[in-house]
Amino acid sequence: MAQPQEPTFRQSVDLMFNRAVGLMDLSPGLEEKIRVCNSTYTVRFGVRLRGAIHTFTGYRSVHSEHMEPVKGGIRYATSVNQDEVEALAALMTYKCALVEAPFGGSKGGLCIDPREYQEHELELITRRFAYELIKRDLINPSQNVPAPDMGSGEREMAWIADQYARMHTTDINARACVTGKPLNAGGIAGRVEATGRGVQYALREFFRHKEDVAAANLEGKLDGKRVVVQGLGNVGYHAAHFLSAEDGAKVTGIIERDGGLWNDDGLDVEEVFQWIRANGGVTGCPAGRFVPEGAKLLEAECDILIPAAMEGVINLTNAANIKAPLIIEAANGPVTAGADEVLRQKGCVIIPDMYANAGGVTVSYFEWVKNLSHIRFGRMQRRQEEGRHQILIDELERLSSDKELGWTLSPGFKEKYLRGADELELVRSGLDDTMRIAYQSMREVWHSRQDVTDLRVAAYLVAIGKVAASYRAKGI
Ligand code: GLU
Predict the structure, then answer these.
(1) Are 32 and 107 in contact (CB under 8 A)?
(2) What is the dihedral angle through the alpha carbons of 209, 215, 220, 225, rounded to the nearest 10 degrees?
(3) 51 alpha carbon – ligand 1 mean position (Å)
(4) Full DSSP string of 408-437
(5) Where are the beta strands (DSSP E) in 65-145?
(6) By the 8 A CB rule, do 329 and 351 touch?
(7) Which of 364, 368, 370, 427 is the best mutation target for the ligand 1 pocket, counting ligand atoms within 8 Å of the beta carbon and taking the most?
(8) pTM, two decimal places
(9) Hey, is 148 helix, strand or coil?
(10) CA 129 to CA 152: how far, in whole Å?
(11) Is the CB of 149 under 6 A from ligand 1?
(12) The pairing of beta strand 326-328 with beta strand 349-351
């Protein structure tokens, strides 16, 4: 956790924002208007559980309504507080602007340790929290659309969607009131993996640019790179899994609450993930060497460090010891403003959170569009696409039956080419495109401006520029 001499999470986000706006020429007052959080609603509500009334505290913070609906997850954790929710809401504003998801920024939180409750209790609590937010229009398909965050997932989103539908029985767009729902409750294929997948696409795009790879003192491709991941939750697991299974990266370190695991030859991500599911932590997992003080592994030799858990884990106490030349912020705010400064001076390249973990909200955007259009992606065109491909295959087969030409089709080509894209493929393609374009917009600023020396400031410049443009268009 961040040390007392460091600013709070929200102040840290504001400091990073200020560093960027200092390089911009915004009209007077606009800078403050963009930075401040528009509103934060605190709800305290009671739920009867185990024979007594239990009081819970929850928040929904709206950072910017320059576009509506506003978007952002709901976190379930005992550490949730107003400062944190506001910092996270601000990051949502910048994140959505950067990846061109047409939303303002919002975030919610419920002070609860979900592991202390049974499923039916969590349902009662979630429905009651949702009720409090829905009746104030803090959940609404056209105004404010939550999603999962740390401690919440598909199950909670399904309860929220159902609660909204019960309270708006004639709203045909009710399902669009929340994203990250299970597939059978209006969700979209690929949403669960989306944030981790986005981290993979971000790294792939980074490694496509030799100059950028060299700026991090690295060379070559992702293949063989040593990766340390902190937090094997939904985001960390998917990032680690895809990077090792599809890109040849070697996950040498995994850090969890109870300690860390290390293996020079690369850990079997699946084995560690299954072990954590069964045992609640990495202790005793035979996949690697157990390191009781897990956080020490943040300082281990590696090529890529992926903090995928909490904010503030890389702070003034450990920044100087970090050896990774490249950090990709899969979590929100894992590097404090002070640590950011130390790391920049050491020459470490940081791929910032607002870009690196934007895969989740990007696919949430696709889900919201799917809900509003009431049709699954690919339903209209898939077979038509296959039909058109069939014409080409027929022609190629006719030509390859001509002995004189001596042509043959490569094995598997026909099947691969014929198949029209399903929803998952379309979602992945839309996500990949989004991550590539957003990276290019950041790197353009990074490399073209003398006064921009890091990707975080570049990301803020692009994002704030977009938010400012929408304010200007509104005449504010
Ligand atoms: N909670 C995720 C985030 O921090 C997802 C937000 C969303 O999908 O709206 O980006």
Answers:
(1) no
(2) -120
(3) 35
(4) -PPTTHHHHHHPPP-HHHHHHHHHHHHHHH
(5) 70-71, 74-77, 104-111, 144-145
(6) yes
(7) 364
(8) 0.96
(9) strand
(10) 13
(11) yes
(12) parallel
Q: Which residue has the tokens 């200092």?
A: 22
In tens digits, the chain (476 residues) has pLDDT values of 544 579 999 999 999 999 999 999 998 899 999 999 999 999 999 999 999 999 999 999 999 999 999 999 999 999 999 999 999 999 999 999 999 999 999 999 999 999 999 999 999 999 999 999 999 999 999 999 999 999 999 999 999 999 999 999 999 999 999 999 999 999 999 999 999 999 999 999 999 999 999 999 999 999 999 999 999 999 999 999 999 999 999 999 999 999 999 999 999 999 999 999 999 999 999 999 999 999 999 999 999 999 999 999 999 999 999 999 999 999 999 999 999 999 999 999 999 999 999 999 999 999 999 999 999 999 999 999 999 999 999 999 999 998 888 888 999 999 999 998 999 999 999 999 999 999 999 999 999 999 999 999 999 999 999 999 999 888 77
Q: How far is residue 213's CA from residue 199's CA, in Å, rounded to a whole number? A: 16
Residue 229 zone, left/alpha/beta (φ > 0; ψ -120 to 50; rest): beta
Determine if ligand 1 sits within 6 Å of the CB of residue 154: no
Active-site positions read: 107
